[in-house]
């Protein structure tokens, strides 16, 4: 019996179509991969540094025939200035903009730009021209102040249900977060990382304490602890702590004596 020719043609066409779709999907995935690689090489690096630190930008290695190198800076307002430039003809390296004098240096062999003692004004995008041609790779630099060590200010209401408001004070940028923790290491404001003020009640443990931490991308500082014995017990806090220790010691001695007496009996 011979196969029906129209059925055979349809089956053959479907097989060819499936193989064609597989090839298309392969090349489509390959193109996306190359686009991602190209985008990464063209987009460059994002760097965040603290004020007064140093940074080095390393471009694609310049060719042996390099005759000129110019690094440029574009600030957040879009203003573009020359950072540093080198020309083989006169052999000089110049830093035309005063914002980069005493900060910028150039490695003529690798094209690397080094900036020392960074300031907030150095935030922006850096590009390099080699032989008067701008390279695809660029570098985005963000310079931030370090956060200061915070201090906890307290405001307590000891009438009725004793409660204290704790306020975390310290210098920090808008991109900083606040972390409140107790003596057990539990985070008290996990739902709101910008919460500067929390309220605490008496846990009946004078040794319980609280700290606040200011954190940003370049630094982290933690306050001195504030103890409940200071919040809820005032000047009697140390006395209560001593009495608590004495009671614990007495209980231990009584327990040892009782065990010894049972053994003798």
From TrEMBL:
Gene3D superfamilies: Immunoglobulins
InterPro entries documented for this protein: CD2/SLAM_rcpt, Ig-like_dom, Ig-like_dom_sf, Ig-like_fold
Residue span(s) of domain Ig-like: 150-223
Subcellular location per the Swiss-Prot or TrEMBL entry: Membrane
SUPFAM superfamilies assigned to the protein according to its UniProt record, in alphabetical order: Immunoglobulin
Keyword entries, A-Z: Glycoprotein, Membrane, Signal, Transmembrane, Transmembrane helix
Transmembrane segments: 239-261
GO CC annotations, alphabetized: membrane
Taxonomy, superkingdom: Eukaryota
The protein, known as: Cell adhesion molecule CEACAM5 isoform X8
Originating organism: Danio rerio (Zebrafish)
């Amino acid at each position: 019996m011979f196969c029906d020719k129209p059925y055979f043609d349809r089956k053959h066409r479907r097989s060819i179509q499936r193989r064609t779709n597989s090839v298309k999907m392969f090349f489509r995935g390959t193109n996306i991969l190359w686009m991602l690689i190209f985008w990464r090489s063209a987009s460059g690096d994002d760097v965040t540094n603290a004020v007064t630190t140093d940074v080095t930008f390393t471009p694609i290695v310049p060719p042996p025939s390099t005759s000129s190198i110019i690094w440029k800076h574009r600030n957040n307002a879009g203003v573009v200035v020359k950072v540093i430039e080198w020309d083989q003809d006169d052999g000089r390296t110049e830093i035309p903009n005063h914002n980069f004098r005493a900060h910028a240096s150039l490695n003529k062999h690798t094209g690397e730009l080094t900036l020392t003692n960074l300031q907030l004004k150095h935030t922006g995008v850096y590009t390099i021209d080699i032989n008067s041609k701008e390279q695809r790779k660029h570098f985005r630099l963000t310079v931030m102040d370090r956060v200061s060590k915070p201090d906890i200010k307290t405001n307590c209401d000891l009438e009725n249900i004793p409660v204290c408001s704790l306020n975390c004070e310290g210098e920090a940028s808008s991109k900083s977060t606040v972390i409140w923790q107790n003596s057990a290491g539990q985070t008290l404001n996990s739902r709101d990382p910008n919460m500067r003020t929390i309220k605490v009640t008496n846990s009946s443990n004078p040794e319980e304490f609280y700290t606040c931490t200011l954190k940003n991308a370049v630094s982290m500082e933690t306050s001195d602890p504030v103890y409940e014995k200071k919040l809820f017990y005032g000047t009697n806090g140390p006395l209560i702590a001593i009495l608590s220790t004495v009671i614990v010691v007495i209980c231990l001695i009584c327990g040892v004596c009782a065990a010894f007496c049972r053994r003798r009996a």
